[in-house]
Amino acid sequence: MLRWIRQQLGFDPPHQSDTRTVYVANRFPQNGHYIPQRFADNRIISSKYTVWNFVPKNMFEQFRRIANFYFLIIFLVQLMIDTPTSPITSGLPLFFVITVTAIKQGYEDWLRHKADNEVNGAPVFVVRSGSLVQTRSKNIRVGDIVRVAKDETFPVDLVLLSSDRADGTCHITTASLDGETNLKTHFSVPETSVCQSVSQLEALQAVVECQQPEADLYRFVGRITVIQHGEEIVRPLGPENLLLRGARLKNTKEIFGVAVYTGMESKMALNYKCKSQKRSAVEKSMNTFLIIYLVILLFEAILSTILKYAWQAEEKWNEPFYNQKTEQERNSSPILKFISDFLAFLVLYNFIIPISLYVTVEMQKFLGSFFIGWDLDLYHEESDQKAQVNTSDLNEELGQVEYVFTDKTGTLTENEMHFRECSIKGTKYREVNGKLLPEGMTDDSPDGSVAHLIGDEVLFLKAVSLCHTVQISYDQPDLPLGASDPFSHVNGFSSNHMEYYASSPDEKALVEATKRIGVAFTGSRGETMEINTFGKLEKYKLLHLLEFDANRRRMSVILQTPSGGTVLFTKGAESAILPFATSGEIEKTRLHVDEFALKGLRTLVVACRHFSPEEYMDVDKRLTAARTALQQREEKLQEAFDFIERDLQLLGATAVEDKLQDKVQETIEALRLAGIKVWVLTGDKHETAVSVSLSCGHFHRTMNILELLQQRSDNECAEQLRRLARRIKEDHVIQHGLVVDGASLSLALREHEKLFMEVCKNCSAVLCCRMAPLQKAKVVRLLKTSPEKPITLAIGDGANDVSMIQEAHVGIGIMGKEGRQAVRNSDYAIARFKFLAKLLLVHGHFYYIRIATLVQYFFYKNVCFITPQFLYQFFCLFSQQTLYDSVYLTLYNICFTSLPILVYSLFEQLVHPHVLQSKPCLYRDIRKNSLLSFRTFLYWTVLGFCHAFIFFFGSYILMGEDTTLMGNGQIALETHFWTWMHHFVTWGSIAFYFIFSLFYGGIIWPFLHTQDMYFVFVQLLSSGSAWFAIIIIVIICLSPDVFKKVLYRHLQPTSTQKSQQSLSAPPAQALSCMESLCCYQQGQSGCSRLASLLDQMTGHCKAGASNCHTSSRCNRSWSDTETFYSNDRSILTLSPIEGTRC
C-alpha cells in the first residue's frame, strides 16, 4: 500500500529498467498507455549548499566540532541554572564564531554556484517546433536534438545523427576527458546521416534504446530504430556513435545529435566523485587536543566539587553566620545539589576550552588564502592567469604533502610535439630552416639543398607523409564555391589555409615536418591520398589501413602507387619493427634510436614492403576474410597483420620532442629533494608515458625500471608482483621505477593490494598508464588509506582528473587549454605545473608553521588564563567566586590577546621564501605534522600551567596581576619576522589593556548594574611595587623558555634553524643563535649582551673576540628596499647573496 502511494505521488518510479528509451525530438507515442520515463535535467552541480539547506547543513557541520558543541552545551546550562557567570560570556563568542564561519563557507560556496551557473547558462541551439532555438544548457532535455558547431564542447552526451559531411562523420578531441589529444572519428548511421537540415530532422521518426548511465567512458551499448515509409530499420550503436559531454568538435563545421544522458547522469559527471568535506591534519589534531583539555576541565570541575563538600563537612563552613541557608536549600536533594555545583564549576572553568580558536583559525585561513592569489610568482603572464583558491580550509595541508599524483597531458606537457631528428639508411639528419641536412652539415653548405634529397631519403619522407590517419581542415571563408574540393588547393597550396588534425600528436608533428621539408600531405578523399613532393603532385589509392593496437605497437597502410605498384608503409616502436626487418641499416638505426631515446626524444621506426600482384591478392584475401568473420574476428585479424607486416625493408627512424612545460624537471627534482614522491597517472599509451617520464626527470636513466603490464589473470598478476618484490630486494640499485597499466592495476587492486603497495613504496617513482578516471581515484584512495596515512596531493587539468582531485587530501587544478572542469572542482588552481614548487615549499611551509603555533598558543594562553581561577577556589572555600570581572572574561580572547597571534599567523616567516625554494630539504623539517606532535603539545601545556602558577602565586605574594602581559610576551618571543604590524598589535594590545582598564574602572558607567572594578586599577598602578611585580613576574616566566630555545639551537638545531643562522654568510658575520630570537626590524639586538655571554659559555667564541660582537650586525629582516635576491622569479635560481645579509 505504501509503495503504491509513493508511486502515485511520484517519489518511487513504478519500474526502473536496465535500459532507457529515448524518442528523438521527444516525439512520444500517441497511445494512452505510454508512461514517459523521468530523466535528470542538464544542470551540473559542484556546490555543497542551496538556499534552503544552507542553515541546517552548515549548523550541523559546525556543531560537529567539539569546541562549538561544547560551548552550546555550556550556554544551555547557563540558561537553565544559576551559574557564577552570565550566559552572555559563552553565548556571544559562540554566536560570533558560528556567524563568521558561516559567512566564510557561504562565500566560498557562492563562488562554486557562480562557476556552475556559467556552465549551466551557456547558450546552446536545439531543434524545437521545426526551427532552431537558442536556449541555455541547463534547459536541454533527454530526446532534444542539439546542434554543436566547430570548436564547441558538447553540452550533453549525444548520439550523432548527422554532420555537414556527406558520410555523416565528425572528428572530436577528448583531451578534457581522458587526457588524449588525438583526433577521434565518430559516425552516424546511414538512415540519419542524410538529415542535414532542420526540416529533415523535424520529420525524422526514430527511437534510441540504450543502457542506463554508467561511468565507463569507453562503453556504450544501444540501438536506434528509424521508421522510413512505415518500415522499421534497426541499427546498432556503440562508443563510436556517442559524443561525450566535455569533448570538443574539431574539423567539422557542425553536427546534430540527440541527447541521451544529461546533467549529473552524463559520463563526465559520473566520473566525478561526490564533493566531500575535506579536513586537514591540523584540524584533526585540534579536535584531539580539545578532547584532552575537556578531560582536564572535567577533572578540575569534579575535584573542585568534591573539595567543596569535603570542606563543608565542618559545620562552621557549611552554614556560616553571613550566609544562612533557606529552608528550601536545606531540604533540596543532595544529588541535584552536587550536579548543580558540578555544572557551576564547569561553567566557571569553561574558558580553558578556547572557542575563539576556531574563529581565529577560520580568519587566518581566509585572509591567508589571499596571499596565494596576490603572489606574482604564481602569476602567468602569457595567459593572464593568477593562482586561485577555492577552499581555504586546507592551506596548512600544503605543508604536509608526502605523495603527489599528477596527470601527464596538459599538466606536465604543453600538448605540443616538435620534430627534431631522423635516421635514414644509417645516416642521421636534422631539420634546419625547412631543410633536411645530414649530421655535421650546416645550412649554408653547398650540398645543403633539397634537390639532393633523392632515392631513399624521398621514399622515407613519402612513407612518413602517407602512413598516418591525419585529417586536414581548410579555413578559407572567402573562397569560391569550387574551392570546397580539397584537391582544388593543390596548385595554390598555402600552409596558412591548412590545419592538420592527427590521431596522435606524434603523427601531426611528423606530417608537419615533411611538409616543411618539401613532401606535403595535401588531403584525402574517399580512397585517394595526395601528396605534393617538391612541387610535384602524386596520388595514392588507399587499399587497406592496418590500425594501431597496443599489442602490435605499430600501424600500417597498403597503397597503390601512381605507377600502379603496391607498397606497405609501416611505423611503430623499434621493438615492433626491427625484429621483422630483413633489409636496411638495422644495427645503425638501432644505435641511432638509442641515442635519440637518451636525449628524451620520442622515437618511431619506419619501414616498407613491396608486393607483387600475386602477393597482394593473397594479402587482400586474408584481410577481407578476417574483417568479415563473425567469430574470433580479433584473433584472425591479428594473424593477418602478422602475415603482412614481415620481411620489411627498414627505411629509418624519427625523433620527436614532446614539449614539456617550463621548469617541469626542476620542479619534480625539487619535490623529490623535499621528500615528496611523485606518481604520474595518465590515460596515455605505455610508450608515450614512459618517454615523457624520462624527459621530465620523473624517471632517471640510471633508474631500474620495473614493469607490471598486460596481466590477464589474478594468478599471473600476483606472480609478477612477487617477482618484482624479489628483484627490488636482490638488485643493488638505489632507485627503482615502476610502470603499471590500467588493466594490470585493476587485477592488482582486486586481491593483491598489500603486495602491490609493498612494491610501490620501495619505488622512487611510479607511472600508471592507460588509466580510467575512476582508477586514478582508486590509486589515490589506496595510498590515503594505507597504514602510514600519508597526505596526498593530486594535480590535473582535465575532467578525467576530477575524481582523483576530489579524492586526494589536496586537489589542484591546472588552468589548461581543455576546459575548466578540474579547476572548478579543485581546492587550488594554478596556471602551470612549475608553480607547484612555490605553492608547497613556500606557502605550504609558512601556512603550516603559522597555524601550528597559533593552535598551540591558544591552548597555552587559555591555560594561563583559567588555571588561576582554579587556584583561586582554594582561597574562597570553593564558593564558585570568579577571579576575573565578567568584562575581562569576555574580552580576554576577543580583544586583549587575539590580534597579536592573528598577525603572527598571517605574516610570520622563519626564513626567507627564496631560501625555502633553494633548499627544498627544509620541507622535511615539518613533515608528519611534527610541530603538532603530542610531545610539542605537552610542552606548551606544561609551560602554560607553570606560567599560571608563577604569576598567580607571584601576584599573591607581591601584588595583584592579570595575564594579558604574559600571553602577548610569549607570542613576541615566538616571532622571528618583525614588521610594523607585529609591533603595533603586540605592544598595542598591552597598551589597550591598560587604557581600557583605566577607563572601565576609572569612570562610573550608568548602564552597569555593578562595578566591582571601580578605581581598583587606578589605585593598583599608582603603586611602584605593582610595576616591580609586573616586570619580575614577566622575566621569571619568559626566561626559562628563552634559555631552552637558545640551548636547543646550539646543541640540536634543525635544518631550518641552521639556515637562519649562517645562510651564505662568513662565520664572523653570521647571526648568533640568541640574536635570531631577539632581532627587531632594523636588526637591533634586544639581548646582545646575553647572546655574547651564552656564546662564550657554549664555546662558540672566545671572550672579547671581535667576531662575537661586531659593530655591524647582520640584518635579519627583509624589507622591500633591500636587494636580498635578484628580480628573477625563477623557481630554483638564486642570485648571489651579500655577505652582510642574513
Specify the structural class.
Answer: alpha+beta
Our measurement of the CA-to-CA distance between the termini, rounded to an integer number of angstroms, reads: 80 Å
Largest sheet: 11 strands, mixed
Specify the CATH class of one domain.
Alpha Beta
CATH superfamily of one domain: HAD superfamily/HAD-like
By DSSP (H or I, 4+ residues per run), the number of helices equals 39
Question: Helix fraction?
Answer: 40-55%
Report the strand count: 35
CATH architecture of one domain: 3-Layer(aba) Sandwich
| Low-confidence runs of at least 5 consecutive residues | 6-15, 447-451, 476-496, 1064-1091, 1096-1142
Shape: elongated
Q: Please name the CATH topology of one domain.
A: Rossmann fold
Mean pLDDT: 77
Radius of gyration: 37 Å
β-sheet strand percentage: 15-25%
